[in-house]
Specification:
With 215 residues, the chain is of the alpha+beta class. It contains six helices and five strands, in the order αααβαββαββα.
Length: 215
């Protein structure tokens, strides 16, 4: 069969011309595709070079370094308002002990305190890649306390004042005061505890940037 094809090619000039034309068309098409690919790659390389040059020029400006230092200083200050604990159990105990002492200091009698801890939760990505709202940031534990005590206006105001002026951040999620069937106050508070190993890393970063590690 192969010999017949060779004989046909030798004896038929039109067949040879047709095959040569087909080979030429494929060769030309391949050159066009290669040229287009090289052109697109060159454009991407030029765009990347221009972007890198712009970024280098921006980073060379002194105000960017000062902005980075200011942002780091703010982060350290915010960290200073976080509670610190090495474990969730100690975080729960520390929060409950502080609340008990503070409520007694405010003049609240026989408070009921229930403290729970949300273990560290890594951000959950949605299908669009965004973090799901409500997840605890990594490296932090959210400690929640539900309080109940007899309604006493002066004691409640003292307690709220102590919460507001505390150096550690405390969020009042709910505050309900009811008069019937018995005067009673119900509150829900939250505080964020930073794992102490995460705190050490932030402090080391601050030290390397010549910033004070606020506590």
């Amino acid at each position: 069969m192969f010999d017949d094809l060779l004989n046909e090619l030798r004896s038929n000039p039109r067949l040879r011309s047709g095959i040569a034309l087909i080979i030429g068309i494929f060769w030309l098409y391949g050159l066009l595709v290669l040229n287009e690919t090289l052109h697109e790659e060159n454009q991407r390389n030029q765009a990347a070079t221009q972007t890198r040059a712009r970024l280098q020029a921006l980073l060379a400006q002194p105000e960017w370094q000062s902005r980075a230092m200011a942002a780091q200083a703010t982060a350290v200050q915010l960290e200073g308002r976080l509670w610190q604990a090495p474990t969730t159990g100690l975080a729960q105990a520390a929060f409950q002990d502080w609340l008990s002492a503070t409520m007694i200091q405010a003049g609240i009698a026989r408070p009921q305190i229930a403290v729970t801890v949300a273990d560290e939760i890594a951000p959950v990505a949605s299908s669009q890649g965004a973090n799901v709202a409500g997840s605890t940031p990594p490296g932090l534990w959210k400690v929640t306390a539900k309080l109940g005590f007899e309604s006493n206006a002066p004691a409640l105001l003292n307690f709220l004042n102590l919460l507001e002026n505390n150096e550690k951040q405390i969020v009042v999620a709910t505050l309900n005061v009811r008069k019937e069937p018995a005067p009673r106050v119900e509150m829900e508070l939250s505080g964020y505890f930073q794992r102490q190993d995460a705190s050490v890393r932030t402090s080391e970063t601050a030290r390397q940037n010549n910033l004070p590690a606020t506590r």
